[in-house]
Each structure stands twice: as C-alpha cells, then as structure tokens.
Design goal:
264 residues; mainly beta; eight-stranded antiparallel beta sheet; 2% helix; globular
C-alpha cells in the first residue's frame, strides 16, 4: 500500500482543500474554481498505475504516473476542448485510486488520457505534436487521446480534434512512459465533409525502429489497423498523405492504441 494525496491550490500556492489516504483518496471540494487554481496529485511510489478523476464530468481513467503531477484547471479559450460542465459549479468530486494488478494487466486502449496537458510530462499516455492549429485548445494533440469520437463537426466540444494547420510534415507522438505491447490501432478521422479533407495513407513509426503503413478511406467510422505485437515505449503517426479533394483541412479526432503492459 502507498500514501496518496489530492490537493487544490490557488494561484498563489495556498492550499484550498486537501485529503490523504492509503491507496485511495476522495476529495470533495465545496467551492468555485477561479483562474490560476490547480490540482496536485501526490503518490508515494514513482511508478504508479492509478484510476484518476480530476473532475466528475470528465470521469475516471487508468493512467501511469511517474511521480507527482500538477494539473492547471483550464478557463476561457483553454477550455474549449472540454465539456462545458467540467470544473464548473460549487461542488466537485475528485479521486485517485491505485489500480489492482488485474486492472493493470487487462487488454485495453493504452492511449486514453482525458487529463493530458502540454505541461504535464510525467503522466501517461501523453500526446505531443509538431504543430497544432493556431495553438488553440480545440485543435491540440491531447484531443486525439481524450476518448471522444464525435467527429461530424469541428471548432468546439464535443468536436475537438488534432488540427495540423495545413502543415504537410505534421506528426503526432503518443508516449506511454514505459514499455508496452501493442497490436492494434484504431483511427477516427475528423469527418466534417466537405469542410474537411482526409488522409488516404499514413505511416506509424514505433520506438523499436519498425514502421507500418496503412491505407485509410473517406469515413467518419473507426478504421482499424491490426499488426503483429510490438514492444514499444512510443509511436508516431506521420507521413500523412491527404486526398486530392479541394479542402486543405484534414484532421484527427481520435487514435486508440490497444495492447497490454509488458511484464518482463
């Protein structure tokens, strides 16, 4: 068992609420967030698998923590990619629960993280891209791993996506923070046709040095790519070739990467 702690801090570092527990902690905050507030998650062990809920509107997700992390509560334009119910009101339920071994070992989407942020580099999975359209939250790389597959429009939640700002060499990397075994990728293209274009071929580069090319079709449905199991720490989606249709705006709504933990 290990100590876990949840804190809510003000912009000036004042502790607004705190609770601690062994392997599990719940924090009920009866207050309204203001800009500059943040949530701190503290764990005793550096490598921890935990079910994390920072907002009851966003729900719980199984994440891999390499130590403590601080989540900046988003406001204004930084929040356009999230449900308008998130982080609002005067009562909030937060929780952290250390995962059981059978939960850690299950076959699952290893790319799911609704709490991903640019600034948090030790919470996994983590998405990073070499371009995001106009630097707007609604087109950030993190949207591609938030679990939301609604893709019939663009520009505001629930239609957040990773936008490439028309950059032909756009690349997105999903990092797991440890070695995992993966054998399946599911892609949801943004499908706001005819506003959107689409990629008819993409490449995936893996940390083990291998590469996989996949053909895609013009569709808003899930497109599945199955391959022999690979042990990797990250993968990149790159070399994306868009169709010859008139629109210059292809985008990615969601990427799911399925597999298991690698237990050596």
């Amino acid at each position: 068992m290990q100590n876990v702690c949840l804190k809510i801090l003000s912009k000036d570092g004042e502790t607004l609420a705190v609770n601690r527990g062994m392997d599990e902690v719940n924090l009920v905050y009866a207050g309204e967030y203001v800009e500059g507030d943040s949530i701190v998650v503290e764990v005793q062990e550096e490598d921890t698998y935990a079910w994390v809920q920072l907002d009851d509107a966003l729900g719980k997700v199984l994440l891999f923590l390499k130590g403590n992390f601080q989540y900046k509560i988003p406001f204004g334009v930084r929040k356009t990619n999230l449900s308008p119910k998130a982080f609002t009101g005067r009562k909030h339920l937060l929780s952290v629960k250390v995962a059981k071994s059978f939960e850690i070992g299950m076959y699952r989407n290893l790319a799911l993280n609704v709490y991903d942020q640019h600034e948090i580099e030790n919470l996994f999975p983590h998405a990073v891209a070499n371009v995001e359209t106009r630097g707007e939250a609604v087109f950030a790389a993190q949207n591609a791993i938030d679990g939301v597959t609604a893709n019939a429009s663009h520009g505001e939640w629930p239609y957040a996506s990773w936008g490439i700002n028309r950059q032909p060499d756009a690349t997105i990397r999903i990092t797991f923070g440890r070695t995992v075994e993966v054998d399946r990728i599911i892609v949801y293209l943004r499908a706001d046709f005819p506003h959107d274009n689409w990629w008819n071929q993409v490449s995936f580069v893996f940390s083990d040095g291998s590469q996989l090319e996949a053909e895609l079709i013009k569709s808003g449905n899930a497109q599945e790519i199955v391959f022999e199991k690979k042990r990797v720490e990250w993968l990149e989606m790159c070399d994306m070739r868009q169709s010859k249709e008139a629109s210059p705006f292809p985008a990615l709504t969601q990427i799911e990467i399925y597999g298991n933990e690698y237990l050596s």
